[in-house]
Design brief:
Elements (H helix, E strand, L loop, with lengths): L3 E6 L18 H13 L5 E7 L2 H14 L3 E4 L15 H13 L11 H18 L4 E6 L1 H12 L15 E6 L5 E7 L7
Parallel strand pairs: 1-4, 2-3, 2-4
Antiparallel strand pairs: 1-5, 5-6
Helix pairs in contact: 1-2, 4-5
Length: 195
Amino acid sequence: MVSRVCYLTHPQVEIDPAVPVPEWSLSALGRNRVIALAAAGWLSGTSQIITSAEGKAVETAEILAAALGLSIEVREAMHENDRSATGFLPPAEFDVVVDAFFANPTTSVRGWEPAIDAQVRIVREMEAVLDRTPRGDVLVVGHGAVGTLLLCHYRKIPISRAHDQPAGGGNYFTFDRRNRRVLQSWQPMERPPPT
């Protein structure tokens, strides 16, 4: 039987330019999507929940952990790519910088953490978790950019925004924890994986 790792991105957030991005929380829509996922039941085989330390990821993980009767483990280094050099950017400007981030993975775009550095970090964190986790499925709650970098790594393909999650967040991909083979690329959290 395949033991599965599910990498889930937090869904929609309350955007507040006055609050540092890592401290943002889920919006009502995002929270309702997580509550519906918790009730859907397809995460019932989960034995461990790991999360980034960012507020929106922790909030997502806590809702799911409560439904599954599990605790969460917070890993600081699983954060989104470091964008603190620019802070909040208006959506159109942000989109241009994200395009450049993925298109130039070895370069710091406007002071952001280079994509290759973020990829090395998220892969290192994931491998550290999987090296010592008990049997059963593992749920990791994180973010879109580093999730995409992780997906590219496990699919053994170059970093590209073409592999980014769909807009809005609240998407997941799965892979076999034994051989790290990707089982499913990005799917909305409302769509359970095949059994």
